[in-house]
Amino acid sequence: MAEGKTESPGPKKRGPYISSVTSRSVNLMIRGVVLFFIGVFLALVLNLLQIQRNVTLFPPDVIASIFSSAWWVPPCCGTASAVIGLLYPCIDRHLGEPHKFKREWSSVMRCVAVFVGINHASAKVDFDNNIQLSLTLAALSIGLWWTFDRSRSGFGLGVGIAFLATLVTQLLVYNGVYQYTSPDFLYVRSWLPCIFFAGGITMGNIGRQLAMAEQP
Amino acid sequence: MTLTERLREKISQAFYNHGLLCASYPIPIILFTGLCILACCCPLLKLPLPGTGPVEFTTPVKDYSPPPVASDHKPGEPSERPEWYVGAPVAYIQQIFVKSSVSPWHKNLLAVDVFRSPLSRAFQLVEEIRNHVLRDRKLRNLLPEHGCLLLSPGNFWQNDRERFHADPDIIGTIHQHEPKTLQTSATLKDLLFGVPGKYSGVSLYTRKRMVSYTITLVFQRYHAKFLGSLRARLMLLHPSPNCTLRAESLVHVHFKEEIGIAELIPLVTTYIILFAYIYFSTRKIDMVKSKWGLALAAVVTVLSSLLMSVGLCTLFGLTPTLNGGEIFPYLVVVIGLENVLVLTKSVVSTPVDLEVKLRIAQGLSSESWSIMKNMATELGIILIGYFTLVPAIQEFCLFAVVGLVSDFFLQMLFFTTVLSIDIRRMELADLNKRLPSEACLPPAKPVGRPARFERQLAVRPSTPHTITLQPSSFRNLRLPKRLRVIYFLARTRLAQRLIMAGTVVWIGILVYTDPAGLRTYLAAQVTEQSPLGEGALTPMPVPSGVLPASHPDPAFSIFPADAPKLSENQTLLGEPPEPGGPAEGAQDSPVPEVTWGPEDEELWRKLSFRHWPTLFSYYNITLAKRYISLLPVIPVTLRLNPREALEGRHPQDGRSAWPPRRPGLGGPWEAGPRAPGTAQAHGDVTLYKVAALGLAAGMVLVLLLLCLYRVLCPRNYGQPGSGPGRRRRGELPCDDYGYAPPETEIVPLVLRGHLMDIECLASDGMLLVSCCLAGHVCVWDAQTGDCLTRIPRPGQRRDSGVGSAFEAQESWERLSDSGKGGPEEPGDSPPLRHRPRGPPPPALFGDQPDLTCLIDTNFSAQPRLLEPAQPEPRHRAGCSRARDGPGYDFSRLVQRVYQEDGLAPGPAPALRPPSPGPGPPLTPEEDGVCPPEKGSPSLAWAPSADGSIWSLELQGSLIVVGRSSGRLEVWDAIEGTLRCSSEEVSSGITALVFLDKRIVAARLNGSLDFFSLETGTALSPLQFRGRSSSPASPVYSSSDTVTCRLTHTVPCAHQKPITALKAAAGRLVTGSQDHTLRVFRLEDSCCLFTLQGHSGAITTVYIDQTMVLASGGQDGAICLWDVLTGSRVSHMFAHRGDVTSLTCTTSCVISSGLDDLISIWDRSTGIKLYSIQQDLGCGASLGVISDNLLVTGGQGCVSFWDLNYGDLLQTVYLGKNSEAQPTRQILVLDNAAIVCNFGSELSLVYVPSVLEKLD
User: Fold this and answer.
1) Rounded to an integer, what distance in angstroms lies between the CA atom of residue B1204 and that of residue B1160?
2) Could you say which DSSP state residue B104 is in?
3) 8 Å CB contact of B390 and A105
4) Which of A134, B1, B259, B1192 lies at a 20 to 30 A Cα distance from B428?
5) A19/B1147 Cβ within 8 A
6) pTM of the full structure
7) A164 Cβ neighbours under 8 A, 6+ residues apart
């Protein structure tokens, strides 16, 4: 989150700068870059968490290193998060209902913390069986949405993202690009959609906050 | 539904009572809460401290057997065995502790001899041990070949005695793998020696001359018989006579899980997120006395609630098994700081004028429902989590529930109380601050004024009417942010200090860790004083660690599996050490006695606690969550006599000391690469070199930084008020970064003529109208500063019957004033006032000199008889002012004098010498000097034209005056004649709007009158634009008829008096004390909206052509409204106390309040950008010159600010006279002149360069 904190402009301090400096496209670009770096960072950190459980998605050869996953994974996550983070405010605007619920940086930070916590739980907590794990994570993800988002568009987008991302991983696994150490459901981990859903909500939250900080 | 309502009411009532309680008894409640926290945290003392240190457990060595794999004791059963003592250990470690000394010490022995031959005995011992395995035939099949690891110092030389003997530099070999930096984990030397470095005695400068090392055996299995026989044999071979070690106990050491970097990174990330969360949360706390104090209290609340939850759980027998550090951030996030913030915000937003107790109670009760609801929701979520039936999650939930409850408890008791204390402090601080500003400008000013005054005269710039904005270098500085950072660094000298500290630490580390550094040097110092003398020391060849590149790495030559076979061939074992016999040479030092004490028994404790994990990690065995067993050490004592020591000596050892005795020995190694034979002095030289280099580097760095500082910061930077500044340093106007630009000084055009504080100011760019409390109106030319007209107060006409007696009231006041305050007056006034005469007598004609000065057109030397700081209550109703002064009425004598105005520079009064004495007979002359006034139309005033002026407007050459009597008057500004008046309603006119031919008057009774002005000739401002200040060219002839017709009346626009009135864009906005605003259309005076949203009386209103409406009230809030729809756009709590004035630019809203703060808000978002602290009493003085230039007033100065960045551009001091006075009001004229109101005088400041900036 360090990048996110330093690069994302605080709304209060730099208000005049943003409004005077950034045109619309520059604004968009800055937000995209910030979101990209946040995504890369989160991907690296969460991957480390998964490694500890030995359920890594990626070849476990270079486990000791931070950059243990395949090189293309963090950029992919970064791009995905940039897209999601830009998509959320965009959809809000098109639907004409600006997101007003808890629009503060502290709330966003809380959301990110809960997201990392969900990942942490999925990595560290021993569950009896995978169904229990999946159910718990699903409940947690929905709780995350309820606590920090509460918008129907956010929920829909989150579900869509989860579905798409799971599909993509499924395809990748089928094609043998990588595999899981212990797949439990059709060659993938069954909790994956929950994580994707929570991630989508989180990135959308950050994206909305960034858009709010920069646009007025 | 009703149930909910009732519940809600109950909760709110309970919270209200609770808030009252908390605010009433803060200290007892805080003490009680502290006790509760301590009591709940008590059980935590029993918990083991978290950490990765090893844990020990001791068992007797007698009939020891490894514990069973499966723990047989039940979990609940008390057991002395720790939980980890299950199954066989990773390894058994047997240390054979060798202490060896050369005795008796011979004088011609070298320092090397202390350890060379003792170390060589290690090879013997190692072989002995190996052969012991083979000797005991019965054990042969018991001992597995691969089961034993044997470490000894001999491993440095690959366990090859020949290599050891050929090695010219033992110390170098030993130290070659020592790291240069500080190292906390075990080094190779420690591993092989098995004793901490300082105990080994392998050093050139030890005094004890005793060498100790261990041979470490690592077994995988425990064989009591083998170990027993090994112990017996070694004790037999090398008896230790005075050994008292009791080999009785076996120590098991359990190592905890180590945290690796991979686990640390997510942990660190979560903590960073946590801190970001706390940061963003506490940033929202606003409008309190000490922001940081409250933020700290909030964090303390959350943390102690966590501690309490852990403590309570422990108390009820729930031992935490989760890793506390890992779940802690999540717990904080779950519990959250939200409640605390909500509480703060709600309490802060209660009306300021309430009592603290009531504020707290109100704030609490208004948020009670949401707090309870949130808490119930969170508890529900956690309960759901509890039913996932996953043990870890259940435990987390349990902690979270207890944490939530205790957090609620703390919020209600601890935080609320802290908040009440804070708010009370704020109110006290407010009171302390407000007090002097009410009693503004006390008469007793500092006495040291004359001296400073002289100085200012000297420095005053020669161009009086220009403000030179700062040189370009300065002005550019404020733009880039990075330069500010550099400034900040430079100001605090942060980098300088950091680098210096870093250098010192670096030098220290270098000196300390260098093998030839301080340690050895100190040791040498000690040894030099020893009887051994320098002869043996200085010539010692110490090739410091330089080894041939091809030197094989001798580390870890662990015995191969077939090592025992190899050692069979060697026959060196079993050679008993000869008892120390008499050696050749006199023994001149005491025999170092080899003693064994209880401290030797557990020497391994002195090793680094990472010693064993490091050792095992070299073999890829982790000790995390496992344990090893340490067997009791076997003591071995070796006594060597000097002869043996000499035999073992390497030819190079004593080369420079005395000729080598046995040059032939170790011949093949003679040719071996050798380090240059530097002397012992080498060490010293290195030390000095390092020290000198470090010192030089440090100095260079400091100098470099100094240069950088000089280059980046101009000389006067940071000391703007060099010398005795007028303000104290703390008061210097400076921006957020502490950057205070240099101040300048100009002489403004001072407009004098009022004798009392100026209350109303109006201008249309060309003319300036001012009205003082005394009720007379002056019209000034805004360009030249000439007084064009003086319209005197109409009161007391009945008495005089001639002219206008505008001074009556002043003279009354002066009389009563000089009676009271006469003695003080001379004390502080003379240096300031250019009064050619002595102090005025307290008599009635103290005001006579005023006369002469009033006639003087430049008004530059007018004495001010009235104390400017006089606490003047704003008596609006002039009649109520009649005080019980002396019974005479001198006003009739003097009032005619004051008919003099700018129009009639009568010559006669100027001729009058100032007469100090009371002179009543002067009146007739005075009467006679002003004949021109007699014919003026002002004579036509009705006697009822009474009441003080409450509002004033100017447009074209017409002045509209609203009086407290309800009378509306239209005056000609140039001629000073009354054109028309209207007197239908007797309720005072509180506010006026004069917009082309239309006059709107707001009255005290809440009604609104619309007048239209009809003139005979067209009222065109252009007619007199550009006209110079010649008073002799009137625009309107007196014959022009101006009539004022009441077109419409809104009888009850507001319930309470209308306090604010503004018009723009065809709309009229009124603000009233009944907390509402109303928007009228100007054309048909139709009410469009009633705007509700303030919780206090409206004090100020702003509307501009873009239809943006802003209003400020006594509740300290600012509301922005959309005039088209009548909806509230935003609402911000801006000030403590009233909002005194409001203006908007295209991008921001500027507000000032009674708290002497000017706040700048983003207009679209309502976010506060920054605020400017004003001087006391200058709170409301602000003006906007352009969209990005703000001017504020201070004590005798005005400051220019860049609105976009909040930068202070410049502070301009306005001459000497206005020095001590606060700027009451600032009016910005079109031609970039600024009018400042300093009490009874006005200053006209031209800012030409501001114009340049605008272009």
Assistant:
1) 9
2) S
3) no
4) B1192
5) yes
6) 0.43
7) none
